[in-house]
């Protein structure tokens, strides 16, 4: 996440500044060593905070987010992380390849949405329902399904409920697919624009290659002749 680079940049610039202040305090002011260390720490904090604030402000401006919105999105990401871990734990409960494949598809969709928003926080509002309800609902259903599926001596009613739960999980998977599609819609739109620009550039190059050399020479000769006449008129004046 680009925002975290602001901390790295702040530290990289604050360390040499505070070190110079520390050396000045040691050799010029000749103070107590504890005071010298306090000068180092104080200079580091005074240097780090404005640098980090300014650089993070630039990143937030690029993303089109306020600092408050960014912290809210990061909070939602932090809350979603343990839910993904719960989803992965269900790999140990399933017993059939078909269930493993289905769970793997759901986990892959959820992980992709999470990582995409983590890398591009400005896309959070396109899939905020994923963080508010879709992920919770999917994880809870899979937790209960994988747990009850292992229970022996199930009645017909219990088997019917498990079957219905499995269908609901499939519906949730389609919802996650829709979330991912919404998340990537702008990227595909940008891809279409880039492809159109590439086609235009290709057509332009093809048109230039199709112009006969003789035509190019005529154009060049005409320009040279006009330039010669213009120079002659200036000399006569």
Automatic annotation (TrEMBL):
Q: Which InterPro entries match?
A: ChloroindolylP_hydrolase
The residues that cross the membrane are 7-27, 33-54
Q: Name one Pfam family in it.
A: Halogen_Hydrol
Keywords for the protein's UniProt record, in alphabetical order: Membrane, Transmembrane, Transmembrane helix
Q: What is this protein called?
A: 5-bromo-4-chloroindolyl phosphate hydrolysis family protein
Annotated source species: Mammaliicoccus sciuri (Staphylococcus sciuri)
